[in-house]
């Protein structure tokens, strides 16, 4: 947190529960064993690495916050870039 503050950023805490089981495209949840590394959504057909899907879900949770409001996680003009998303 102190490193983020030094860089003019802030840390947003996110509950990681179900982030690797939820589809980041449509929200469908499907429990899978940890050895399954590719997430293929049976509902919308999204195909992602499990860790990438979890990262996208965590980022989405950080943007919406627990009460539904959108926190300003990044200083104005410094939004994150989505490589190939």
UniProtKB/TrEMBL annotation:
Residues of the Cas12f1-like TNB domain: 1-58
Listed Pfam families: Cas12f1-like_TNB
The keyword DNA-binding is assigned to this record: yes
Keyword DNA-binding found: yes
A molecular function (GO) term: DNA binding
Biased composition annotated in UniProt, kind: Polar residues: 76-85
Domain of life: Bacteria
Full protein name: Transposase
Region (Disordered): 64-85
Keywords: DNA-binding
Lineage of producing organism: Bacteria, Thermotogati, Deinococcota, Deinococci, Thermales
């Amino acid at each position: 947190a102190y490193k983020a503050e030094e860089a003019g950023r802030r840390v947003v805490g996110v509950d990681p529960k179900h982030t690797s089981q939820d589809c980041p495209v449509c929200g469908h949840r499907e429990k899978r064993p940890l050895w399954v590394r590719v997430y293929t959504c049976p509902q919308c057909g999204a195909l992602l690495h499990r860790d990438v899907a979890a990262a996208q879900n965590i980022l989405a949770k950080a943007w919406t916050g627990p009460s539904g409001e959108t926190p300003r996680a990044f200083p104005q003009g410094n939004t994150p870039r989505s490589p190939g998303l």
